[in-house]
Amino acid sequence: MTGRQLVTSPESEESSLSTSVNTNMKLLSYLQREKLKVPQKRARQEEEEDDTEEEEEEVEQSFVEMRALEVEEIEKDDKDEDLEKILHTQQNCTLVTFFKLIESHRDKIPSEAWQLISQTCFGEMINAFRTRRIVADQVSRFELDIEILLRHYCKETKKFMFGEKEMEIKEEDVHLLFGLTKECENEEEKICRRKKSSQQSTIFGKTKGSIFRKMIHDKLTEELNKIKNKEAEPRKIASLIIMNLLATFFFSTSGSQIEWQLVLICEDLEAINKINWSRKVIEAFHEGVKKHVKGKPKGLNGCVVLPLYCFLERTKIKEKIQKKQADMPRFVRWSTNGIIYRSDYLKRPKKLEELVAQGPWKDEEERTSGSEEYGTPDEHGTPSFEEWAVIHDEQPLNHVSPVIDYEDLPLTDDDICNLDKIVESQAASIRQSATENDNVISATV
User: Fold this and answer.
1) Is the dihedral of CA 231, 235, 240, 241 positive or negative?
2) Per-residue H/E/C for the chain
3) Which residue from 337, 4, 2, 317 is spatially nearest to 140, judged by alpha carbons?
4) What would the pLDDT profile of 335-394 be if each residue is shown by its tens digit?
């Protein structure tokens, strides 16, 4: 036989061309739909820009709305007389207060103070507030959720019991959640001994005893007001911001105060990382929760919100916040706003046990960093439409294109700008494929 030999039969060529035409028709249809969506997308982008400008004005309103939702949920549960009433009380431990502090003073705090904070183990956590990776309702929490989890706390073992499963808060948990130091040589006594030799604080003078949160806030405001006259001291500002975080969250007390010893440590920014803060936070929590009595709620000392974050980490009760699944420190990934609901908890007493038994979500970084199970991002990268069109046109006639869900293919900014060109290119490709298909059919008749 002379001349070019056909690798495939006329029937297979006809089938391949038909598949190619159908594939291109689907792509053209999708592109045309996307073209119609462009004005809507641009309008949404403009709306998002307007929303960003109004976000600060809505922060305070969001707190009011969240409190209203909490009251509504409580009143709704109270109407169900068949269910047990879970008594609870207001706890001072919250990140909302610190959120408001940073929102109010972000632009006033000098860069030197931010730099000093970044060199401490509290830097990553505070930077999440500074860069607005934390939003208001994300750090709101319901007192009821805290009370329900504390019902599972065993004072003897210092663990949370969910049926046969235990949940223990470890130093590693606090370290991953908030970035605090762990397993380091604790030099707390040396620092305090050195500071006590002078018998005074560089910020509060000779006052010895607990420092109230209001005093910390007033001192911070006083230092920030000195910036105009170039008299502010960045070291004091950095220390006061860290003190505020300790007083409102990690070492919160029912009296809204902070121990003198913690004040002295926060003033020594060079030595602050030599404290095992993870262990210190856990010890303060266990000490404070000793006073918890079921059915007799009272204000507790310590970081009573910590169990909420640990429960989120250990179960699938909620999903991580979109686009924050791999953020560090890990508390940024979660919202503590509404975790457990009273009616659901009482109607399904074993729900929490089941959640703990099932375990946590798979970490986002495990799905994207290149494990054997998921592969690497480079292996499964999705091409843009222009790249896909070139690849598709280069396929041989007998190549059967894989089934592709075009709804999952992303349109880049360049794709949107060149959408007319892409649509015309695909239409021409369809016409050419149809012509070739007719020629093959004619040749086989």
Assistant:
1) positive
2) CCCCCCCCCHHHHHHHHHHHHHHHHHHHHHHHHHHHHHHHHHHHHHHHHHHHHHHHHHHHHHHHHHHHHHHHHHHHHHCCCCCCCCCCCCCCCCCHHHHHHHHHHCCCCCHHHHHHHHCCCCHHHHHHHHCCCCCHHHHCCCHHHHHHHHCCEECCCCEEEECCEEECCCHHHHHHHHCCCCCCCCCHHHHHHHHHCCCCECCCECCCCCEEHHHHHHHHHHHHHCHHHCCCCHHHHHHHHHHHHHHHHHCCCCCCEECHHHHHHHHCCCCHHHCCHHHHHHHHHHHHHCCCCCCCCCCCCCCCCHHHHHHHHHCCCCCCCCCCCCCCCHHHHCCCCCCCCHHHHHHCCCHHHHHHHHCCCCCHHHHHCCECCCECCCCCCCCCHHHHHHHHHCCCCCCCCCCCCHHHCCCCHHHHHCHHHHHHHHHHHHHHHHHHHHHHHHHHC
3) 337
4) 998 888 777 788 887 888 888 888 887 655 444 444 433 333 333 344 443 443 343 444
Please state the φ and ψ torsions of residue 147, each to the nearest 5 degrees: -65, -40
CA dihedral 298, 352, 168, 316 (to 10 degrees): -120
Determine how many CB atoms are found less than 10 A away from the CB of residue 301: 21
Give the model confidence (pLDDT) of 227-238 as tens digits. Answer: 888 888 999 999
Torsion, Cα 340 346 351 353, to 10 degrees, reads 100
For residues 34 and 313, the model is more confident at 313
For helices 277-289 and 171-178, angle between their N-to-C axes, nearest 10 degrees: 110
